[in-house]
Amino acid sequence: MGATISDVAREAGVGVGTVSRVLNDSPRVSDATRHKVLRVMDRLDYSPNPFARRLSLGRTLTLAVIVPFFTRPSFVERLRGVEAATAETEYDLIIYNVESVDKRDDCFRRGARTERNDGLIIISLSPSDEEVERFLRSQVPTVLVDARHPELNHVVVDDVRGGHMATQHLLDLGHERIAFVGDDYPNPFHFTSSHHRHIGYERALTEAEIEPRPEYVATGKHGRDVAWELTHHLLSLREPPTAIVAASDIQALGVLEAARERDISVPSALSVVGYDDIEIAEYLNLTTIHQPLFESGWRATHLLFQLIEDQEVEPICDQQPVRLIARGTTASPR
Question: What pTM was estimated for this model as a whole?
Fold first, then answer.
């Protein structure tokens, strides 16, 4: 049998309540008493019962993270940021992977329960007003990442600016026939990032006095294979584009694969810009828009810790910067 809290109290010559206060880092314990109790705990190799500790704190010491398609590289990076922020705390993580609309709705209901978790992070899934009201009513501190709602803290980037930046880079190189490959919108999961990047793309063209061409906008289900198919369609047009803005690096991979199959040289015959700057982008020498994926997960988790300690703080929008990373898939048109 391992040492108990009573054993520690008896050896240290203090009450069980004092040991409990040391465990909870209470300021009501003097430094001398704290050091004495900690020395006894070390000598007896005492480990507090995690369930009893959670009861004494009135918390679950658990954070829930709701994330769609969590094996996608951009979501993995955000989850790495969340994990890094919790690594040196007592909190455990529960990750809900959402791959269907029904699963999304179920996870939102389960996440809004204080007996399950002390706080909730939702990645890339925009909750409705009704769902936000449920979170607020249940008093589960909630932070959004890559999604927005005025009643909740959220960590985002300016995707309109990012789409504009990607397109402006191609315009500066001299391209005029610029296409866009992205996600369908609206979509069942209410993903908005690709849509906002498309808005930025059209805004840059309009500012350059280039009329956006509907046939140059190709959208479908998110993924490399669909982007590959959409790109084949674009490159089959009577007047194909000389450049393509992809709404993600994964979709840019599909664009590059389709160009290679058609023996179209990148960047001399086709320039390609991605979005996200996932790890493989550097390996492929892909020009892309960098967004701080890891940092967004890390910052969201620290925002959540602040909310857990003080739920009265006003919701904030933590907007992270984006920047263009020019590599080898873009050049002036021939």
Answer: 0.82
Cβ neighbors of 314 (< 8 A, separation 6 or more) are: none
- CATH topology match: 5-57 vs 62-156+293-320: no
- What's the pLDDT at 71? 87
**For residues 159 and 199, what is the distance between their CA atoms, to the nearest angstrom?**
9
DSSP 172-235: HHT---EEEEEE-SS-TT---HHHHHHHHHHHHHHHTT-PPPGGGEEEESSSHHHHHHHHHHHH
In this predicted structure, what is the pLDDT of residue 190?
86
What are the helix (H) ranges across 87-158? 101-111, 129-138
Q: What is 5-57's CATH number?
A: 1.10.260.40
CA atoms within 13 A on the CB side of 328: 6
Domain positions in the chain are 5-57, 62-156+293-320, 159-292
- Residue listed under structure tokens 């001299």: 174
Look up tokens 């002390």; give the residue.
118
φ, ψ at 192 (rounded to 5°):
-120, -15
Nearest to 193 by CA among 149, 148, 244, 243: 148
Which tens digit of pLDDT belongs to each residue from 184-242?
Answer: 999 988 899 999 999 999 999 999 999 999 999 999 999 999 999 999 999 999 999 99
Q: Taking the mean position of all CA atoms in its chain, how far away is CA 12? A: 47
Domain 62-156+293-320, what fold? Rossmann fold (3.40.50)
CB 246 within 8 A of CB 252: yes
Count, residues in the chain = 334
CATH topology of domain 159-292: Rossmann fold (3.40.50)
Give the residue-averaged pLDDT of 281-290.
97
Band of residue 55 on the pLDDT scale cut at 50, 70, 90: very low
Q: Quote the CA–CA distance of 103 and 73 in Å, as a whole number.
A: 21
CA separation for the pair 180, 203 (Å, rounded):
13
